[in-house]
Amino acid sequence: MTSSDDVQQAPVKAPAKDPWDLPDVSGLVVGVLGGTGDQGRGLAYRLARAGQKVIVGSRAADRARTAAEEIGHGVEGAENAECARRSDIVIVAVPWDGHAKTLEALRDDLAGKLVVDCVNPLGFDKKGAYALVPDEGSAAEQAAALLPDSRVTAAFHHLSAVLLQDEAIDEIDTDVMVLGESRADTDQVQALAARIPGMRGVFAGRLRNAHQVESLVANLISVNRRYKVHAGLRVTDI
Description:
By secondary structure, the chain is of the alpha/beta class. It has helices at 38-49, 61-71, 80-86, 99-105, 139-146, 161-165, 183-194, 210-227; strands spanning 29-33, 53-58, 76-79, 89-92, 114-117, 122-125, 128-131, 151-154, 174-180, 199-203. 42% of the residues are buried.
């Protein structure tokens, strides 16, 4: 005869986490490096309009402050290093040709920060846009290599700067592909994307998959030119 103590009990599995149960990021400060460029300004505007505290950064503090005043909605402007230090989440929206130099200069200021790289390495010739392949594999992987003390993710690659800055548009109808090594970090970035009405953040893998996400922008540019639109992406069946 065996007692209940003799029967090996199967381990109780914790219920699977709801992938759409995302953290509250509304109280976090978001910095946008390259916030004086079209993409950076557009992201800063949309996030600030949604109630996020936003600081735009530039190499020149006066340019950053001018851009912030033009964006409105309580956005502040600061030199890049100050922007990085004062922010909880830092979006990198600088031109590709200045990507490495900018991040190298801000390594200490970005230590411990959640960094969201949205840079697309592209080239252009008479045939149109085409993807470049950085030595590290992608812009996001280059950022991770240059910022060993930061938590690097990748997101916001496929957004139209024109739509982001259009004050007449209330919702941005698109999904945002989010990549990173830590699910806690990608959850935060997904939640940040979801702060913008119409937008949804979708987990899309680790940073090693960032190249194809970045390079897809070349295809979207071709779509936009052919059909005279500002195309985005939607992931179906989720």
